[in-house]
Design a protein that fits this description.
With about 80 residues, the chain is mostly helical. It is built from 3 helices and no strands. Helix 2 runs antiparallel to helix 3. The longest helix is centred in the C-terminal third of the chain and has 31 residues. The chain is elongated and about 60 Å long. The two termini are about 30 Å apart.
Amino acid sequence: MDEKPKREKKLKNHIPEEAREHYHTARRELREGVEALMPEGFQEFHEHRKTARKEMLLAFRSLLDSAIKRMDEPEE
């Protein structure tokens, strides 16, 4: 009945820690960007959006690097 922890643990084995860190940083930056959306914080919003975009790209890079590494490992 309690499958969620099993799924989360399985996902953690397939998603590198670096990718998870970038994802969490991107979420934080996006949240801060939305908070800064007020007119006086418009420039700040753009900075957070740019940082969030970079973090998401770094997360995807980490996922791709991990997948390529697994492909290079010998099959068991």
